[in-house]
Design a protein that fits this description.
D-Maltodextrin-Binding Protein, domain 2; 4-stranded antiparallel β-sheet; 2 domains; 5-stranded mixed β-sheet; alpha+beta; single chain
Length: 247
């Protein structure tokens, strides 16, 4: 999702879903403001309101995300993943298909279109780590437009900003993109920043996950540290296989 802020001529800023913002921006642009995070959870919608653990063996689950599918298959390797395309409305309609028993989507997107009543099961953060930046918006500015950034600074939410900085640093250090099952979620608790991250192979068989805690003012360093922990644990082999090159 992208929203232009300003006149047609000025194009002062873009509001974008942070999970869709590239890990590296052009030198002339910056994410100047990050408002408070919406619900970061993933949720499952299923026929007959059956939970994930109670789905019959061999059930088909629809998702548009390799991150989700890898974590689902790590939990239940007997399930089958059906790739979904299209907007959220289209994906929800796919649940009417005879071949799909459930779909997994982001809670924030479902809330945006007013379909939260369709949720069968919210997936806990302990079970399913969200995408980097999930549930957050970022306001993208020209780097030299400090006047506009200052004018809108009241929208910035410190706890969300440092969390997203840690998550994006983690992703950047892994050279991650949408073609790899990488997940990262940070939150501020008692003046400490907690960052949970994972790297998995496509079928969820190889799965590396860990958590680090540090100072919020060291958010970027925390993200990089967690990335190297997972790489050293063996995640690097997964990434090299998927990327087809050495890291």
């Amino acid at each position: 999702m992208t929203i232009k802020i300003g006149t047609r001529a000025s194009k002062l800023a873009l509001a974008q879903a942070m999970k869709d913002v590239p890990a590296e921006l052009p030198d002339t642009l910056c994410i100047g403001i990050i408002p408070e995070r919406e619900d970061p959870h993933d949720v499952m919608l299923s026929k007959d309101n059956i939970s994930l653990k109670d789905l019959p063996v061999g059930s088909c689950i629809g998702t548009s995300s390799l991150r989700r599918s890898a974590q689902i298959l790590h939990y239940r390797s007997d399930l089958k993943i059906i790739p979904l395309r299209g907007n959220l409305d289209t994906r929800i309609r796919k649940l009417e298909s005879a071949d799909i028993q459930a779909i997994v989507v982001a809670a924030a997107g479902l809330k945006r279109i007013g379909f939260t009543d369709k949720v069968t099961q919210p997936l806990s953060l302990d079970f399913m780590v969200p995408a980097v930046g999930q549930g957050t918006l970022g306001l993208e500015f020209r780097l030299d437009d400090q006047e506009t950034i200052n004018m809108l600074k009241f929208l910035d939410h410190y706890a969300t900003r440092v969390a997203v900085e840690a998550e994006r640093s983690f992703l950047m250090e892994l050279q991650g993109g949408c073609q790899v099952p990488i997940a990262g979620f940070a939150r501020l608790k008692d003046n400490s920043l907690l960052l949970d991250g994972l790297v998995a192979d496509l079928d969820g068989g190889a799965y590396f996950r860990d958590t680090v805690i540090g100072k919020p003012e060291k958010a970027k360093e925390l993200g990089a540290a967690l990335a190297h922990m997972l790489l050293d644990a063996g995640a690097g082999k997964i990434l090299e296989k998927i990327y087809g090159r050495s890291l």
